[in-house]
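Batch 3, record 17
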Amino acid sequence: MSFNIARENGKKRVVIVGGGFGGLKMANELSKSGFQVVLVDKNNYHQFPPLIYQVASAGLEPSSISFPFRKIFSKTEVYFRMGEARLIYPERNILQTSIGKVEYDYLVLAAGTTSNFFGNKHIEEEAIPMKTLSEAMGLRNALLGNFERSVTCATEQERCELLNIVIVGGGATGVEIAGALAEMKRYVLPKDYPDMDNNLLQIYLLEATDRLLSGMSKESSEKSAEFLKSMGVKVCLGKKVLDYQDHKVILEDGTEIPTRTFIWVSGVRANAIGNLPENVIGRGGRIKVDAFNRVEGFSNIFSIGDQCIMLGGDPEYPNGHPQLAQVAIQQGKLLAENLLRQEKGDPMKPFHYKNLGSMATVGRNKAVAEFSKVKTQGLIAWFLWLVVHLRSILGIRNKVSVLLNWMWSYLTYDRSFRLIIYARKAKEVVDREKREAEVHWGD
Amino acid sequence: MSFNIARENGKKRVVIVGGGFGGLKMANELSKSGFQVVLVDKNNYHQFPPLIYQVASAGLEPSSISFPFRKIFSKTEVYFRMGEARLIYPERNILQTSIGKVEYDYLVLAAGTTSNFFGNKHIEEEAIPMKTLSEAMGLRNALLGNFERSVTCATEQERCELLNIVIVGGGATGVEIAGALAEMKRYVLPKDYPDMDNNLLQIYLLEATDRLLSGMSKESSEKSAEFLKSMGVKVCLGKKVLDYQDHKVILEDGTEIPTRTFIWVSGVRANAIGNLPENVIGRGGRIKVDAFNRVEGFSNIFSIGDQCIMLGGDPEYPNGHPQLAQVAIQQGKLLAENLLRQEKGDPMKPFHYKNLGSMATVGRNKAVAEFSKVKTQGLIAWFLWLVVHLRSILGIRNKVSVLLNWMWSYLTYDRSFRLIIYARKAKEVVDREKREAEVHWGD
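Prediction for the assembled complex:
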């Protein structure tokens, strides 16, 4: 296996690992720049994480919030390769991936984060994460399957486990999925399961700190908790999860909550790449970069977005930036510009994050939003949230699809995608995955 | 586990196994009839098989051609249970399923068919079937994955295997998927893979008999072959597949065709149910029924649709009916009526299939259709095909979704759903599947 990309005369090669918000922005900015751009991603599509919770709660199809890279790049000169980055040989300027080696002149690590289970292998094995589309589809399937089984199970104890939902993590994702499931409980389940005792289904949102949405203002935190409570969600602050055993979530204070739908959205950890020196790995596995997103100690390796941490580089954010889409996009844009400047012999510009605001939605007509000077909650925030997210989705087809689905759900109170379905894995695919999993140190 | 359905005073219970065209029709007809109706299906959704090939070829999403049973039945009194039928205890009027036992007064077997590999375990393991939505999604994933790997593979031999597509079976499904893939090759791949040598990708359609669409007229067979050839498909008639080894399809005449996309749509076999006497199982595993769809030798067990065969019951079809949606629908409708007649003490009516015609689509503006006296090919047939299928899809939302997707694809020549994605299976689901797989003879 190899990348099968010929070097072009006089063109330096930029290899970007990861096609999330940061990597994609950078690839597009550099697509007609005189660089040969290669983007490597383990998926063949760009996904839109802010709406993944709607896939999990059966409101949207995965295809509505994802976009094939080859379609994105079909009118550019960017090379796409589907594969997983494994490690770097910095002295030889080579990146090793699951599909072979590729030489780079500039390497940009933009591989984002994965769920953080804080070392608890037990929770890692049992909990249902919701970071990727694949995980969201798995959660949807598990959730709907549990509802089905609650109808035919043998004991009240089991019924209680099957219906209870425990969400761990009170960030935006936790708040949003809790709200979406509360609406499903209220509007969809009574129709679907006329003989289900709706009171048995309880939605718990557990947060270890003393407030939800810690990235936003106190006002937004309180309002979102209030919204959720009004929708019937049991919001439990200051509750730390210790373990999950025998279908029970065990809290630090000794409380046990029975559930078979144990959703883990309690923090992230940067995706790892092999062979970087230990001293460049910071908090949460993030790669330490300077003000130009250059990995400490390297001249041609960069990292952007959630995967990196810029300590002291941006005066307003001495401890690093929040892990948000906007940071990644702005870093991707600036780094593209900086590489071009460097080629021309101009000095690079340091990164300064421009905070465009943040928002989270809780349910119908209920959201919280804050911008530099304005804070708003409720209907206006909800409407702003819709517009901002719709604008950000790639492609007309996807925008139309999301808009139509939202309108349909709003008018009918329905969730259209209540299918329990797994794609059958062909043997050829299983075999290939085994082969590629073995590629590590050489091929 | 149990079905948890209480007997209602004076209501006899009809248990229907399978919610395909026949089972669903029957459930709906009986929903307000004075019977207690229980429908068991292994999926939580009704699917629309005629368009499954469009899911496989990335033209439609699974949700567009499937519909949750609980939504269908939400305004009726039909009980839905998700589970797999295992065997019957006729002397006790009990059906054993993966989720427990259920007692019946009338049992209706409408579980349809599965792919027939004619006993070749090797082919069964390696080939990619396309009977269910799950299989269609698996095929889509495998196909797109093979295209991706064709870009980075090491040898010409492997590239050839990854790009060649071999479809075995020249019935409607084989013809339709061949046509859809030919259009993908022509319109989508050159844009997605500018550096792919399109000539390396060959689509073979292998059929053991001497013509395609053996259920239709010779004229339609010839026209469909002509259409496919004009689209670049290699149509090979009279070619029997013996085996698949080392990524090669081996034909009876000794020819070998290298491929890693080996699609098997070469025939079906009725789904089996345990404990029926051997003598009621006919050709292709189909359950022998009389003119009233009653299983031979039983008074309260019936079978309808593809799973059954009516030998000698319908004078026009002495050797049984073709396995088509219309047969199943008409049988489901009549059997519902007959059960009601029987309850009233009226004699049951024998079944006579009314052939409403048949059609198959090959590509843009290309289809074949025939009705009792009219045969048509090309644009008109294609348009009829669209209208008939759109009308048959359940639910306004799905109709709109399919129509918009078709219009979009027609105008843009694009296939929107080119995502390689597998839902992550939660441990709770894996555990449950293991438990339920063990339920066989008792629980």
